[in-house]
Amino acid sequence: MEELVQLKDFHDLTEEELLSKLNSSGEYGLSQQEAERRLQIYGPNELAEEEKVPWWKFFIRQFKGPMVYVLAAAALISLVMGEKLDAGAILIVILINATIGFFTEYRAEKALQALKSMVVRQVKVLRDGEVRLVASEELVPGDIVLLEAGDVVPADGRLLEAYLMAVDESPLTGESVPVDKFVKTLPKDTLLPDRTNCLYAGTAVVRGSGKALICATGLNTELGRISKMLQTVEKQEVPLEARLAKFTHFLIKLVLAIVVATVALGVLEGNKLLPMLQTGIALAVAAIPEGLPFVATMTLALGVHRMAKLNALVRNLASVETLGSTSVICTDKTGTITVNKMTVREHVPASDEARELMFKVAVLCNNATINGENSIGDPMEIALLKWASDNGYNPTQIREQYHRLKEDPFDSTTMRMATYHEEWVAVKGAPERLLDDCKFIYDEGGLRPLSLDIRNRWQENVERLASMGMRTLAFAFGKSLDELAFLGVVGIMDPPREEVREAVASCREAGIHVIMITGDHVTTAVAIAKEVGIINQDKFEALEGRQIAEMSEEEIAKRAREVAVVARVFPEHKFKIVKGLQKAGEVVAMTGDGVNDAVALKQADVGIAMGIQGTEVSKEAADIILEDDRFATIVNAIAEGRRIFDNIRKAVMYLLCCNLSEVLIVFGGILLRLPAILLPLQILWINLVTDVIPALALSLDPAEADTMKRPPKRKDEDILTKAHQVKVGIFGTVMFLGVLGITVYVLKCLGFSPLKATEISFHSLVLAQLFFVFNVREASFLRRPSDLLNNPFIFFGVLASILLQVSITYIPIFQKVLRIVPLSLNEWGIVLIGALIPTTILQLYKLIRGE
């Protein structure tokens, strides 16, 4: 028995071969003793659980990084020098940023727990020839299980008996139409979605009943295979985090260079080492935008709030900006592009009289029921009832008028269903078979023989509907099955959502490539893709999963922008597609709703799960959950992501300009042998309080007019481009010169004391930076005054910061800590003039440049 292995592929073996391989009996099952022995060999039928990361490890992780190390070093030097207040303030900054990072990152990875919840707890099993209730964890290969409508399949197995059985396999395949199940052996090359003689763990029986031989349990099931893949997926680095990390490293190098140069220059000039180290700390504190992590996090959090109003729930803050960087959307078809409701899109009757009979047959040869939005039954049959009802045929009245006497259920041999009534038989089925079964046709000439030529013409109609991606059904009626008259055919499909075409067009305008990835047939997928504009030219590529399996990731990367549709895919194909696209440098957003999507959702730069149709597994693996399952919501969220990045860029630019002006003021004061213009705690106050409020207000700026008319950012694009860096240099220098000019003026011309001059410089710089927030936007408000009014939060933010700055001069504790005293009205006038000079110069500069 120890030599037995769990079977991976069992669709192509006969019942006798399977029972022999697994040493079991279809009539008696396993003995209890044998089942217990196998349980020791194979282990329990459950999914392994990944070890959770405790919360404290997430917190400790926040204290890693170059910015933290530099601030910690500054705090340590301050402590050694006896500046306990400075050291304490810097340590508080570190703690605040770590706390923000902790709450941003700490979210539970529950995908495996959700997977485990899909496995049923008890199941009917044949043991020792008796039916027993057994815990699903105790199932072993070779067990015989009995299943009926409402049961969840506990493990992978092969059907031995099936009576009108249909199974919802959407968790694995993504397709919502139940799959009819049969017992016949299938060819070896049959794909998983077409293996109608197999059952898979986590799927649900929606109709009929059956008996199955368990062939694989636990991690050897399809569900288990996905679980193992989920554990191996490493999430891609978030573009915003990468950009901020790159920016931080650049900033640290710059800060260290400035500090070393300043300390060395001061010592060479004859100054003592300790005061120069203190000046170096002031420079380090001035150069590092301590408020940046808080501003970036709050900008993302505000974006999350706005996205929630757009029906997009964000589970991972950084994914908000990543969505804005998206260059490729890999979208599911069913429920995202389409409405997820089978609908009769077209019908072709043999005549007007036949059309009326088609509606009656659609109602009578049908086991579904509809009651408003509440429908019960097979989706295809529900579609037929709604079609008849929408055309004025009341299903209840028709069924009362024509009582059903008996029914021949649909089976794979006859490919039809028939219901018997008092005077006639109603039949529906596969058109190619029903055309062969009918002797007559009910056309404009009445009832007449169905000739070969007429059959061929109708076959062309059927092929036309099929080429448009529709599932086809034919209708017939007659006094008996031997005298059937052909009535016509209908084309049924899950139609696209109305807004999708416009959303796809927006993606194209924004430089975003859309690929439809589906478990459905390629003909259906291509038809839908053409209808919504994913395919809008004659030359396109539509691939199948088996082709993806044969391609390398490099080949996928090369053809990334040529492929429009990938059909008949499995989880590993989706995963491979995402990795190939990422290898091509694309930022990939992947949508999904089933267990089969979980691996690709986790691998993608942004995983987007469906809130209505999605499984818990897909939701836990995703970064964003759509509450309305609409593709258009993704496009709206991308626009929001782009707005957020633009605003983070403005905030970074604003903070960096402010920091540069502070560095230059400290450095310039040393060169000009002026008294300390800014003290370390004053700089911390500016960076953490007065600068942060306007920076947050910038995060609420509305989107630019061209937000969705420009291509996505490159994955390696810096948060500040060279053009932005030049502006930072110019703007920071102008602010520095303005404040330095006022400092020199009050010291040399007005004879202010060094302490008073320092305070004037402090207040002037704060106000200059507050006014500077209006310069961060691309256009000059002198040229476009409306920009002053489109974000009132900036006005309120600047006003709040001004009031805060003025008020601290009259609060004793701030006077002591920041070494300031109340100013006279004339002195405030000097501060205001010093603050307005840089803004006036910059606005005139932008106006002259035509911005």
TrEMBL record:
Pfam families tied to this protein: Cation_ATPase, Cation_ATPase_C, Cation_ATPase_N, E1-E2_ATPase
Any one Gene Ontology molecular-function term assigned to this protein's record: ATP hydrolysis activity
One GO CC annotation: membrane
Top EC category: translocase
Transmembrane segments: 66-82, 88-108, 250-268, 280-304, 651-671, 677-700, 728-748, 760-776, 788-808, 828-848
Alphabetical list of Gene3D superfamilies matching this protein: Calcium-transporting ATPase, cytoplasmic domain N, Calcium-transporting ATPase, cytoplasmic transduction domain A, Calcium-transporting ATPase, transmembrane domain, HAD superfamily/HAD-like
Compartments, record wording: Membrane
Keyword Mitochondrion: no
Keywords: ATP-binding, Calcium, Calcium transport, Ion transport, Membrane, Nucleotide-binding, Translocase, Transmembrane, Transmembrane helix, Transport
EC number(s) recorded for this UniProt protein: 7.2.2.10
Entry-linked InterPro entries: ATPase_P-typ_cation-transptr_C, ATPase_P-typ_cation-transptr_N, ATPase_P-typ_cyto_dom_N, ATPase_P-typ_P_site, ATPase_P-typ_TM_dom_sf, ATPase_P-typ_transduc_dom_A_sf, ATPase_P-type_domA, HAD-like_sf
Cation-transporting P-type ATPase N-terminal domain residues: 9-83
Keyword NADP: no
Topology of this chain in the membrane: Multi-pass membrane protein
Family, as annotated: Belongs to the cation transport ATPase (P-type) (TC 3.A.3) family. Type IIA subfamily.
Annotated protein name in UniProt: P-type Ca(2+) transporter
Annotated source species: Acetomicrobium mobile (strain ATCC BAA-54 / DSM 13181 / JCM 12221 / NGA) (Anaerobaculum mobile)
